Amino acid sequence: AKETGRDNYAFFTERMDMDVRAKLAIQTQLRGAVARGEFAVHYQPQMCLRTGAMLGAEALLRWDNPVLGRVAPSLFIPLAEEYGLITAIGEWVLDTVCAQIQRWHAAGLGEIKVAVNLSGNQFAQDRTVEFVEATLRKYGIAALCLGIEITESTVMGDPDKAVAALKRLKDIGVGISLDDFGTGYSSLGYLKRFPIDVLKIDKSFVDDVATSTNDAAIALSVISLAHNLNMRVIAEGVETREQMAFLREHGCDEMQGYFFSRPLAADAFTALLGEKKNL
Ligand code: C2E
Ligand code: CA
Ligand code: CA
Ligand code: CA
To answer: What is the pTM assigned to this prediction?
Structure first.
């Protein structure tokens, strides 16, 4: 709980302290950034800890603006939400990812599942589920190739609506991961109500998993909780061999992190897929 409090506090002050002019500059530049082609999707491998094979990737948005340079998603995504731009950006991400999956299939490059992060505002829109279905149809790809990552805050705004939308996505075969698990306030309540396939252990618990008995205990609890609920577990932010070994030894299903690979631009990720490199 201490961890959560500190994180939220840091996030809040970061937002409050952000120079008003910097905010304004981001707002100005964000408008039209999709049309100007300033966004790219990078892909970070998600690796099976049992076989070492790549099972999937997380799609992570990158923004390179001529005036501002590269702006971190943790800065611009909350502002895109605030300015009502996140739906357009999120739809661009979904379209870009599905187009990329189609290209990988056409090139015979395996059956990986790509998980896209969804924002709350985007999720509250009735058309999001329809947009996902339409995009899968547009590129002729199976829903099994697509996953979405949500956080508690994604669904907090209108939980009933979120449950309905998630059930529809799950029904068509889109996988649902609960991101940053353990950092929020009522994770267990969400686990009961939402049709979740995967729990992602937050990086803050992974960092010291091999050296702190408390963090190890939390990781082990999340792993058994997930397995008891018939969910899979992905550990995020794995940076060292020790962290990976611990997680593997204790039955964590998948890992993602700099230890294997940073998020990669589409071309570099395509090359990695071609190498069929294992963990
Ligand atoms: P997240 O969903 O928790 O994504 C994981 C973040 O951890 C990413 O930061 C990733 O680059 C970083 N990461 C992965 N492995 C490691 C590691 O081993 N060490 C360290 N230090 N970091 C690692 P990134 O790409 O800056 O994204 C930050 C957040 O922005 C994401 O957190 C997600 O909440 C949001 N985001 C990114 N792309 C999108 C998007 O397309 N849509 C929405 N709505 N949110 C996005
Ligand atoms: Ca995520
Ligand atoms: Ca995460
Ligand atoms: Ca996280």
So the answer is: 0.93
